[in-house]
Structure formats: C-alpha cells, structure tokens
From TrEMBL:
Gene giving rise to this polypeptide: dinB
Keyword Metal-binding: yes
Species assigned in the record: Caulobacter zeae
Stored InterPro entries: DNA/RNA_pol_sf (IPR043502), DNA_pol_Y-fam_lit_finger_sf (IPR036775), DNA_pol_Y-fam_little_finger (IPR017961), DNA_polymerase-Y (IPR050116), DNApol_IV (IPR022880), IMS_HHH_1 (IPR053848), Rev_trsase/Diguanyl_cyclase (IPR043128), UmuC (IPR001126)
Cofactor (UniProt): Mg(2+)
Record: residues binding Mg(2+): D12, D106
Catalytic residues identified in the record: E107
Name this polypeptide is given: DNA polymerase IV
Coiled-coil ranges per UniProt: none
Record-stated family: Belongs to the DNA polymerase type-Y family.
C-alpha cells in the first residue's frame, strides 16, 4: 500500500445489533437471533449470522423470517445501547485516523494515508483496530483495505465475519471483474435486474460495456458504473459529509383503509420530521411521501418548492396533498412515510442567525 496515493480502510461491524444482543445475553449466543418484533407487521432490523444461514435478512417481514427459520428468537431493539457502542468504536478509530467518514452506526471509512499511529501499513492498522474493537467491546469487525472507497467497501465483505481483505494497487480492476453485479455497492435490486436484462451479470460483463452504452441505459450513473468496473473511484473520505434527508415511517398493525386515518398518520409523521428539522436547523425544499400497500406494492410521491420548507404547516399541507394523490386507495395501506430532502444551506444559515439574535 505504500505506493498508493491513498490508504483507505472500510470497517464494518459483524451483524452489529444482533451481536450486541448476543454479547449482553449469553443465552442468545449460538442461536438464530433477530432484532425486531415477531408481530404480524413486524420487520427485521438485524439478524445474527446463525439466522442468516436460513436466509433471514434485515428489512425482511417478521412473518417471512419465521417461515424461513421457525426457531428464530426475537429481541426488541435497544438503539441507545447501539449508539453508545458505536461511540466507543469511533473513539478507537480516532487513534488511527483524522479523516473518518461514518456511514451508519456500524460502518465507516478511514483514510490512514497519513499513518497517524505510526503503524506503517494499512493492513496492519486494520488488524490492530479490529483487535482493539474485540478487546474493548467484545464484538467483531471486518475490514476492507484498498486505495479507494469503492474497493475498500467491496473488500470488507470478502472475509466476513471477523476477517479482512486487501485489494492492493494494480489489483482493483481484476478484483472487481470477479464480483457478481448484485454485490456492487450502490447497485440496488432494480438496477441489478436492469443490468441482468442487458446481459450484465458480473463485473467482467460491466467492464466490457462502453461509456456511451452505460450512459444510454443508466444516464448520469453511466460514468460511475464505467469507473468502478475498472476499479476507479476518486471520492475522498469526507468526515463532514452532510446529511441529505430526514424521514420517518411507520408500519401499521392492521391495514389502513380509511382516508381520514391515513391523513392523521401522515400529519403526525410530518410533525415528527419537522421537529427534527427544527432541532437540527436543517430545512429542505423537497417533501416525499411513501405508501406501501398490503400487497407490498409501493408508491412514492414527491414535490419540490422553490424555497426551503421552514414552516410546520407547509410540510403538513405538502404531505397531505401528496398522499391524497393516491386516493381512492387501490388497496389497504400497511406503511406510510414522510421525508424531507434537498436541504437548503441558505435557509439553515438564516435560521441559525435568527436563533442567535438576542431576545
């Protein structure tokens, strides 16, 4: 790695939420554990590796998970505990890197090019970090080491759990070609299906496509796909990455068919999201409403304003207008969500100045 312009490590905790629960309750160790609710409308937040062997995954309906794994043990989430452990882990990161980009509670990129701890190699740095995480939290982590973020992210999945993998300079393009397209970070189910329809099943298939072909079929994402198929990713590790959206959603115990009840739920969700916007002094220009029907089909409605949504009533009205656009309902509704995005820096700064004025 010494010849590389960057030394990037991607650290990913192994089955984080479920592993914390197994750590804190020894009776759960070695068992198929799901963090979530076994209720009919429950959704899996995380699954232990024992449960994953049966095909149980996060975001899966609890009913489906139980069919796949009848012995599944459910435990309620404890996000305050997960956040506390995440802070512990990030304190360890800070001993080895100044450039740290958190992706979630359980994963982050570290740029260790500067060798803050004097370890000399990124591979050894990753090993020491993983050893400290195990010693100080009782949990395991996996790591990917490479010269850019995309390759480090892909590498961290190679030897999971409790392992690490290096993609050294000169190896990136060959490494990417061995991967199935569904493994690519940033390629979701819909895009993967589209790619497969075009005969693109692996990184090697993607590598064979011209830039013009990828732009024709994937628009602005074409150059990105063209680059990563060749192991190219110029994005720096960004410790100040801005949050791009804030949202809230809820899954109902019984399908909602009454439009009045749906409007009441949307209003409550809009108020919850706006409360976050006020607390964070972050105001967006775009409101999005998500509707998931009883048959799991999903509808999304979105509207952007010329200026930021700085009034609670504005977000309420926007959200109600958007959800009313699906009336009359084609089926009962099992989930509703409201999100604000496209944050307006000028509105945030103005709000901050207003809050600073003496009363």
């Amino acid at each position: 790695m010494e010849s590389s312009p960057r030394k990037i490590i991607h650290i990913d905790m192994d089955a984080f939420f479920a592993s914390v629960e197994q750590r804190d309750d020894p009776s759960l160790r070695g068992k198929s554990v799901a963090v979530g609710s076994p209720a009919a409308r429950g959704v899996i937040a995380a699954a232990s590796y024992e449960a994953r062997k049966f095909g149980v995954r996060s975001a899966m309906p609890s009913s489906t998970a139980l069919r796949k794994c009848p012995g599944l043990v459910f435990v309620p989430h404890r996000f305050e505990v997960y956040r506390a452990v995440s802070r512990q882990i990030h304190e360890i990161f800070a001993d080895y890197a100044d450039l740290i980009e958190p992706l979630s509670l359980d994963e982050a990129y570290l740029d260790v090019t500067g060798d803050k701890a004097g370890v000399a190699t990124a591979t050894q740095t990753a090993r020491i970090i993983r050893e400290r995480i195990r010693a100080e939290t009782g949990l395991t982590a996996s790591a990917g080491i490479s010269y850019n973020k995309f390759l480090a992210k892909m590498a961290s999945d190679q030897n999971k759990p409790d392992g690490q993998f290096l993609v050294a300079p000169g190896q990136g393009e060959a490494f990417v070609q061995t991967l199935p397209i569904g493994r690519f970070h940033g390629v979701g189910e819909v895009t993967a299906a589209k790619m497969k329809g075009l005969g693109i099943h692996t990184g090697e298939d993607l590598n064979r496509q011209s830039l013009a072909f990828l732009q024709e079929h994937f628009g602005k994402l074409g150059p990105w796909f063209y680059g990563i198929a060749r192991g190219v990713d110029e994005r720096p590790v960004n410790p100040d990455r801005e949050r791009k959206s804030s949202g809230s959603e809820t899954t109902f115990a019984a399908d909602l068919a009454d439009t009045g009840a749906i409007e009441a739920e949307i209003t409550a969700l809009a108020d919850k999201v706006f409360a976050w916007c006020q607390k964070a002094s972050a105001f967006g220009r775009t409101a999005t409403v998500k509707i998931k029907y009883a048959d799991f089909e999903q509808a999304t409605r979105r509207r952007s304003l010329s200026g930021a949504i700085v009034e609670q009533e504005t977000l309420r009205c926007l959200s109600l207008d958007l959800v009313r656009s699906v009336f009359p309902l084609r089926a009962g509704v099992r989930l509703l969500g409201v999100t604000v995005s496209n944050f307006d820096a000028a509105a945030t700064a103005a709000t901050a100045r207003q809050a600073a004025l003496p009363v």
